[in-house]
Write a structure and sequence with these properties.
- By secondary structure, the chain is mostly helical.
- The chain has one domain: Orthogonal Bundle (Ribonucleotide Reductase, subunit A).
- Helices cover 66% and strands 0% of the residues.
- Helix 2 packs parallel to helix 6 (121-147) and helix 4 packs parallel to helix 7.
- It is globular and about 65 Å long.
């Protein structure tokens, strides 16, 4: 989730070219509506059957609940401050769901009716997907509150600030670029939660480990869905798909919580959080490079044929991009000292 430099800017386009491209992309997106609607039924889980945050937390209707809280706090006492700070950063990211649903529904061709009650597959997906994601922030918020180690008011201020500041994935309202972004971001979030779970295990908190791995399982399902949406786009419009992939990667993947400190008394808080995730191995430059490599392989970018000139250039660029970032990651040194936040 850290900062990485941009290699080149995307090729500039004039307004007429941009409008034509968006219209074409919207047409393809409309063709996928039934496919996406099917994913709502087969990939996402009905609320009646889905896990909920209370499944992992002390039950206060139980007379022994306070003993369970004490056990939770005893386990949490062994978690290093750096891991807790990283976990709070993950929580803040998850809690900005209003921004993510808004972003998705503002994409060209996704919510043509401009109604959250639309029966379209894309709109149903945006609601059901963010509803599943909403549980992640709820669970981490309650868990961290119960540990007694977190300044929850400071956390709440950061969440408030992030939602107030909003979110820009820099996908230019282009649904193709947005599917690239979400495929990448779901995988990145999965990696972050998996690695946090490993650190929780190491610290002796098996419940937190289970929480992180369960959340990671959701992210893995969502990643699979977004990659399948993009696979369909590659089938229908390979030149448009690969060009969108190139554009997104030239801009770099902007992490959702990047504006958490903007306008606050601690504007560097996102940078501080990013340095911690790099230092403790929750999310690193190597992870960023490996995600690029995975997506290039998954969508068989290097074997695509029949591409137009711009797409062929994009193919050449993407084929070597993971190696470039891997070399960059090799040169990045974890900071000796990190600034902690949100702790009591």
């Amino acid at each position: 989730m850290g900062y990485l430099p941009t290699y080149n800017q995307a090729y500039p386009m004039n307004a007429k070219e941009i409008n034509y491209e968006l219209e074409k992309n919207m047409e393809v997106i409309s063709q996928l509506d039934d496919f996406v609607g099917h994913a709502v039924e087969t990939v996402l889980v009905d609320p009646e059957d889905c896990w909920q945050p209370t499944d992992f937390l002390p039950d206060f209707s139980n007379p022994e609940a306070m003993e369970d809280v004490k056990l939770l706090q005893q386990r949490a006492a062994g978690i290093p401050d750096t891991v807790l700070t990283s976990l709070v950063g993950n929580l803040v990211t998850e809690e900005a769901l209003p921004s993510y649903q808004t972003y998705f529904n503002l994409l060209e061709g996704i919510n043509v009716e401009r109604s959250l009650l639309s029966p379209s597959g894309w709109v149903r997906w945006s609601k059901a997907w963010t509803a599943e994601e909403n549980r992640h922030g709820d669970l981490l918020n309650k868990y961290l509150y119960l540990t007694g180690r977190i300044d929850m008011r400071a956390v709440e201020q950061t969440i408030h600030r992030l939602i107030t500041n909003g979110f820009d994935a820099k996908s230019d309202a282009d649904p193709y670029q947005a599917m690239i972004y979400t495929s990448f971001q779901e995988r990145a979030t999965k990696i972050s939660h998996v690695n946090t779970g490993k650190l929780a295990d190491k610290a002796g908190d098996h419940v937190l480990s289970k929480i992180c791995k369960t959340i990671a399982g959701d992210e893995a399902r969502h990643e699979k869905a977004y990659k399948s949406f993009m696979s369909k786009i590659f089938e229908i419009d390979p030149s448009g798909a690969i060009t969108a992939f190139e554009k997104m990667m030239r801009k770099n993947i902007v992490m959702p919580a990047v504006l958490m400190g903007e306008g606050s008394s601690r504007p560097s808080i996102y940078k501080d959080f990013s340095e911690i995730t790099q230092k403790i191995g929750v999310y690193t430059g190597w992870d960023y490079a490996r995600i690029i490599e995975h997506l290039v392989d998954f969508w068989k970018v290097e074997s695509l044929t029949g591409l137009d000139t711009a797409a062929a250039k994009a193919q050449e660029y993407l084929a070597s991009l993971a190696d470039r970032y891997m070399r960059l990651a090799d040169r990045i040194k974890a900071p000796e000292e990190v600034s902690l936040a949100w702790l009591k």
